[in-house]
Amino acid sequence: METRLPSFDEGRNSAKSGAFPRTPPDRTEAEARWRWAIQAANIGVWDWDLRTNDVFLSPEWKRQLGYEDHEIPSRYEEWESRLHPEDRHRTLATLKAYRTRPSPDYEVEFRLRHRDGSYRWILARAALICDADGMPIRMLGAHVDISRRKHAETALRRVHEELERGVQERTAELSKAIDILQEQIAERHKVEDHLRRSQEQLHALSTRLLSMLEEERTRIARETHDELGQTLTALKIALAWIRQRLPTDQKPMQDKADQMAHLIDTTVQATRRIATELRPRVLDDLGLVAALEWHAREFQERTGIACGFTRSPEDIVVDPARATTLFRICQEALTNVARHANATRVDLILVLVGAALRLEVRDDGRGIPEEAVADPKSLGLMGMRERVLPWGGDIHIRGIQGRGTVVNVHIPLEGNQAGLSGVLA
């Protein structure tokens, strides 16, 4: 039996003619709770009738742009006209492509002009509703203001750029010191001592940067998972409460509630994915072995490259700081495989050798050239080397053309990591 959604005009005419039953008190309360849940989650809701081009923009959608509900009309043009010029072509092209060939999820980020003239970053997610013939007739979606996250990312990127500039400036100073060494042999020992101290400072700076980065990742991951996750869970519970109390003869509203529940589930999944990418909880909860095993599976599913993981012995217990070092090196190595190796298989091998751990990442790809291994512009490889230095460990990267690349990491299990005490507490 075909169920047809009413059009906007039919809904308006029915409301004017009194065709809808009067709203009972419990429904009024349910609608109030629904609006409170949407507002608490800071989610703007929109409903676009593709047949008539009529659009419903929720009060929260307008509030995100600084307007009260009555101050701007609910029209498609209100959205399109506020798009940032730099985002306009990309956003409209994404929308057109989605309407032409719908995919399971529609997600796009763009900037909208606020009432005060500034622009706010918006994350939009939506889904299409089709008629019995499979033709799209309505598009339902939600807007979330992510300006704070975008500003935080921009600020963090600027910090990284400033730190990189600082390292480059320091490197330039070292080069100048070498020139002075060649010109002033009499001060040779003094310059050598200066270089040694400078290198120690650079390593200490690098170690501290890694520490700060890991702390920030952990903090953001926890806040994303706990705070946003709790809010979405509460929203879903409230929506379920509303859904159970909707009259059985109000199928359009029941369908709308089901669609919103699906959007919430999609947002929960995205939140978990972002938190996991920042700092996988399995690393903190179950340790290095479980984290590497999980990452191998996730890498295989994401890239289609077969990924195996073996360890000896079966149970390897590693302190959190060393576990983080080895896990991040493995992440970087697998990222390089996915980007550059053109491999069909990669193997992770974790072995306990005496009082040290050895991690090997081996792929069957094209093989990294020697000049790339030694290239100072290879920041990823440089970062891998910097991670093992505080432990007194070492890393060797060897590629054979047409036969793959092998990354060998060796870290002693004795001694403390200089400059990183308490980083993972």
Task: Write up this protein.
By secondary structure, the chain is an alpha+beta fold. The chain folds into three domains: 41-145, Beta-Lactamase; 151-279, no CATH class; 282-412, Histidine kinase-like ATPase, C-terminal domain (Heat Shock Protein 90, 2-Layer Sandwich). 55% of the residues lie in helices and 19% in strands. The protein has 13 helices and ten strands. The strands form two sheets. It has a five-stranded antiparallel beta sheet, sandwiched between helices. A hairpin with a 2-residue loop joins strand 7 and strand 8 (356-363). Helix 6 (147-183) runs antiparallel to helix 7 (188-245) and helix 10 (288-303) packs parallel to helix 11 (320-341). The longest helix has 58 residues, at 188-245. The chain is globular, with a radius of gyration of 28 Å.
Secondary structure: elements and pairs:
Elements: H1 8-17, H2 25-40, E1 43-49, E2 55-57, H3 59-63, H4 76-80, H5 85-100, E3 106-113, E4 119-130, E5 136-145, H6 147-183, H7 188-245, H8 251-278, H9 281-285, H10 288-303, E6 306-312, H11 320-341, E7 345-353, E8 356-363, H12 370-374, H13 379-388, E9 394-400, E10 404-412
Parallel strand pairs: 6-7
Antiparallel strand pairs: 1-2, 1-5, 3-4, 4-5, 7-8, 8-10, 9-10
